[in-house]
């Protein structure tokens, strides 16, 4: 018995229209080269031109923007420019490097030009009390750690970056520094941030005044500036 097969129709776009609704149910058949080229060209065009909202709906970008909007909204309410600058520093950190310094041991250097009154880096470490700081200082001396990486925030809090910190602990002292340290409050937490005092060029060393309290046992200063006080304390 022979059954008359219905004539295959073509759609308006030139592609073959399947009567059964599924190409696999109609068996094997050849496709003209012209139709095949049309299909390939359409698929390539679709691959090269993704939907316009693909990048907008990227979850990583959306999460970053929402986090930035959240911080900006919380900072703007206080009308404090320091908080806005800290937000910018968090999302776009300054390019810095540490290497050997002519002042003392290691130092921190700028890898890009830094304008005046800009946040350079946050002094990161462990927040400890004065009692713990005294115990650790003695222990560090017994371990042979000569350099001190403790930074006082206020009367009760000290940031210890000796074994848990970032590049900021490599900043050397200078009696004529190009930066200064400032305590700011972010989300009810005090932080120490290093600001640029003047324009800083590429490969210029980052320095600030340690402002150690005056003591009988003096620590010699090796900054080499014209107005060097001779000692850190």
From TrEMBL:
This is SET1B methyltransferase. It comes from the Eukaryota. GO terms for biological process: methylation. GO terms for cellular component: Set1C/COMPASS complex. It is found in: Nucleus. Residues 94-211 form the SET domain. Residues 217-233 form the Post-SET domain. It comes from Neopipo cinnamomea. GO terms for molecular function: histone H3K4 methyltransferase activity; RNA binding. Its main location: nucleus. InterPro entries: COMPASS_Set1_N-SET, Post-SET_dom, Set1-like, SET_dom, SET_dom_sf, SET_SETD1A/B. Keywords: Chromatin regulator, Methyltransferase, Nucleus, RNA-binding, S-adenosyl-L-methionine, Transcription, Transcription regulation, Transferase.
């Amino acid at each position: 018995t022979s059954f008359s097969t219905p004539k295959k129709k073509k759609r308006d776009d030139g592609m073959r229209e399947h009567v059964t609704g599924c190409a696999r149910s109609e068996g094997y058949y050849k496709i003209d080269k012209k139709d095949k080229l049309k299909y390939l060209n359409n698929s390539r065009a679709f691959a090269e031109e993704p939907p316009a909202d693909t990048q907008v709906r990227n979850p990583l970008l959306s999460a970053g923007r929402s986090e930035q909007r959240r911080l900006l909204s919380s900072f703007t309410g206080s009308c404090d420019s320091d908080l806005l600058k800290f937000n910018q520093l968090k999302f776009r950190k300054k390019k810095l490097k540490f290497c050997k310094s002519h002042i003392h041991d290691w130092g921190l250097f700028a890898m890009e030009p830094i304008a005046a009154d800009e946040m350079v880096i946050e002094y990161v470490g462990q927040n400890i009390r004065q009692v713990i700081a005294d115990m650790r200082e003695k222990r560090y001396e017994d371990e042979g750690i000569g350099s001190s990486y403790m930074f006082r925030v206020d009367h009760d809090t000290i940031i210890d970056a000796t074994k848990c910190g970032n590049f900021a602990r490599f900043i050397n002292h200078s009696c004529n520094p190009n930066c200064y340290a400032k305590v700011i409050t972010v989300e009810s937490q005090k932080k120490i941030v290093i600001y640029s005092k003047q324009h800083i060029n590429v490969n210029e060393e980052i320095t600030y005044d340690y402002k150690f309290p005056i003591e009988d046992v003096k620590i010699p200063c090796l900054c080499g500036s014209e107005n060097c006080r001779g000692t850190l304390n």
